[in-house]
Amino acid sequence: MRIGEIAALVGVTPRAVRHYHRMGLLPEPARRANGYREYGIRDAVLLARIRRLAELGLGLDEVGDVIADDEGRELVEVLEELDADLERQEQVIRERRTRLAELLAEAREGRLAADGPVSPELAALLADLGEPGTPGSPADSPMAARDREILTLLDTVVPEEDRARFMEMMRDAAGHAPALYARLDALADAAPDDPRVAEAAAALAAVLPDEAGVEVPDGGLADMFFGDLAPAQAAAVRLAMRLVAERAR
User: Fold this and answer.
1) pTM of the prediction?
2) Which CATH number fits domain 3-71: 2.102.10.10, 3.10.490.10, 3.30.1330.30, 1.10.1660.10?
């Protein structure tokens, strides 16, 4: 195969092939008498592997390290690994399309939540917390509105394998939401040393799981979680997390 042919077969550009040669990722093949490169099946397999690794987010230096570890393996092993990679991609695509179909159905029927699209686990949690605008719903609390935003963010950033467990833990506390939100809303104009801060912290700590007992240092995540809270509200949440940590020891 010529360079244009192998590039088209694998789905890259000839320029990319030349770049991989310069990087040392793809060895230079033998050349014909006329000086043109002559690529074979092993070159195509290696080029496909480079493309796949790059698509997975690896930098080219990291790709080179992986390929170096692969030296000496039989062609069938490399092909089997490529096949397994493609199978995993297909599974991810099937799952995404299944979820997309559900979202499309909800959207066409006018049932897609304002916070959506969200995972089924978060959708169930938000349903437990109630819909904003419903008489007596805790979701109308200012603190609840902020919670929905944070939960929607966590729904995106928490790894999929941990998300279901995390949302289930939050659902366990959902039944206490009205009283907790009322306590925290009442601290909006309070001072950090208000006696109600300790009361709210104790009530919150009583329903939080042990995993919530973490210390969040200033800056970064702290700015995101506590930045728009009133001083007394932030003090109550921080104290609750410390109480949970002490309980879990």
Assistant:
1) 0.47
2) 1.10.1660.10
